[in-house]
Each structure stands twice: as structure tokens, then as C-alpha cells.
């Protein structure tokens, strides 16, 4: 089974589990408050918002926040890639749109076409890195800054209004609320305004704000900030197997398939590693099977001599 398929099944399974708990009254909760009986863990953003709203250090919220931060430091943004239902909802909504067959075929052909060029020299890499930085294309600064702004606004509004305002419109919570509303509707015929309001609000967020995860989501911003301490479970490139080293030509496929803009082969030219969702797209997309997910992978950067070894000498033709 491909990882992309598995990443669709897992969030749907979590939604189904929450629905079963709702029907059987066994208290599984949802991703906003997951637990069993009197033991539960709050969403880290909800925990912060609760404490700011109440102006007190709520023990339950503090414990939940600590558990969440430890998980983020160990696994990075794996929640975004494997558990969050928002990407799945976006895909389901996108399935009803008419695909551009001509454009799709052209993109597929372009992606399949081999790159004839050889690997960049160290001098060329340095020039490219400098050019990208001067034009703001390294590190995805704009999406990160916009998410951080939304995060700050969400926390500030909780402190001002006395309750976590963002929780009212959080697409994660709305997705689970939609499941519970539909169960109540078809199970007992309970019809309320929620039947219309929740799906409408969710559709607005995932359809009209298509870049919710990368540009708006304050929870992903919080995870990215905490993920700066992460050093584990990162994709690592085996330089000996990489096409750039083995055949002396550029590839860049791992960077092309990464939705977060990370370049595993040349980390200095892409988004920082704290944005990695452990989705595995780079692993499956690598034509040389040179990328593996390692538990303890250091910084994720290649040896400084790797590019130099793969580059042609001054006497070779380019």
C-alpha cells in the first residue's frame, strides 16, 4: 500500500473511531480532547487558549501542552501528515472539481522526463542559494509569517474575549463536529442549525482557503515552532545511491514532490526541516530509492564533501 493511500485511511479511521465512541457513549473524544473517561489530552492550541482565557495555569491544560510538545519534539509535524483530517477533507472536496486533463498529462510528462544536466558545482550551489535568498524563495518565509500571525491573533483573542475563539472555527474540530451532527441526524432525526452551519463553515475554510495548512493554520505554526527542536525521524539521503552522485546528473525529484518545499538532497536550498510532516512523499518519489526515514538522523544535512565528490572535475565536459 502506498503511503499516500495510507495517509488517507488513517485520518478516516480516527474519524470513524470518534464516531463509534459517540454512538456507544464510551468517551473516546476527538482530536480536540482525546481520551478515555476522566483521562484526556487537550489540543495544544486549545490548552494555551484556555489558560490565556482563564488567566490561570490550569493543571489539565499544562499537562496536555507538555505531552503535545514532547510528541512534537520527537515526531515533528507528523500529526499534519498522518492524523489531521483537514487534508483529507480538502481532497474529497477537490474530487468534485473538473480536472484539467490536458494540463495533468503535460505535468506528468514533464515530471517523467529525465534531467540531462549534471549536478551543480559547489560554486553554482552557492550562487543559487544567494540568489534564492535575495528573492525570498528559501524557507517559505511568507507562509510561515502568515501562520504565525494567525497563531498570535488566536491566542490574543482568547485572552481578550475570555474563551478560545479560534476553537469555534477550527476545521479539525468542525470535521469531528460534522461527524457527530450527521450521526445525530440519521440516528435520531435531531435537526438543528448545526446541520447547515457546520458543513458550510467547513467548506468555506477548505475550499475558499485552499492553502489553509501552509498559510493559515495556527496549529501547524505552533508545531513548526516547537519542531525546531526536533532531530529525529527525518528523511535521509544515501549519497551513494542518489542519482546525482551515481550518474552525475541532476534529479531533484525529492524536492519536487515535497508539499512543504523541503529539499532532502540539498537542505540549504529549501524550507527548513521543522516543516517536515513525515508524509514519505520524498521516499516514494525518489527514483533511486536513496531516501530512508531514520530515527536518529542528526541535522538531516548531507556531508559537505558530497556535492564536491559528485561534481565533474575541471577537465570533464559539462
Write the layout of secondary structure elements.
Blueprint: H1 3-24, E1 29-30, E2 33-36, E3 39-42, H2 44-54, H3 59-75, H4 78-82, H5 86-94, H6 101-112, H7 122-134, H8 141-161, H9 171-188, H10 194-208, H11 212-216, H12 218-226, E4 232-237, H13 243-246, H14 253-257, H15 281-285, E5 291-296, H16 304-310
Antiparallel strand pairs: 1-2, 2-3, 4-5
Helix pairs in contact: 1-9, 2-3, 2-8, 8-12, 9-10
Q: Main attributes?
A:
318 residues, two-stranded antiparallel ribbon, globular, disordered C terminus, mainly alpha, 5 strands, three-stranded antiparallel β-sheet
Shape: globular
The major pleated sheet works out as: 3 strands, antiparallel
* Main sheet: strand order: 1-2-3
Total E-strand runs: 5
Q: Strand portion, in percent?
A: 5-15%
Structural class: mainly alpha
Output the helix-strand order: HEEEHHHHHHHHHHHEHHHEH
What is the first-to-last residue Cα distance? 40 Å
Assign a percent range to the helix content.
Answer: 55-70%
User: Radius of gyration in whole Å, from Cα?
Assistant: 22 Å
DSSP helix count? Answer: 16
Which residue ranges are poorly predicted, with pLDDT under 50 across at least 5 consecutive positions? 111-117, 131-143, 299-318
What is the typical, i.e. mean, pLDDT? 80
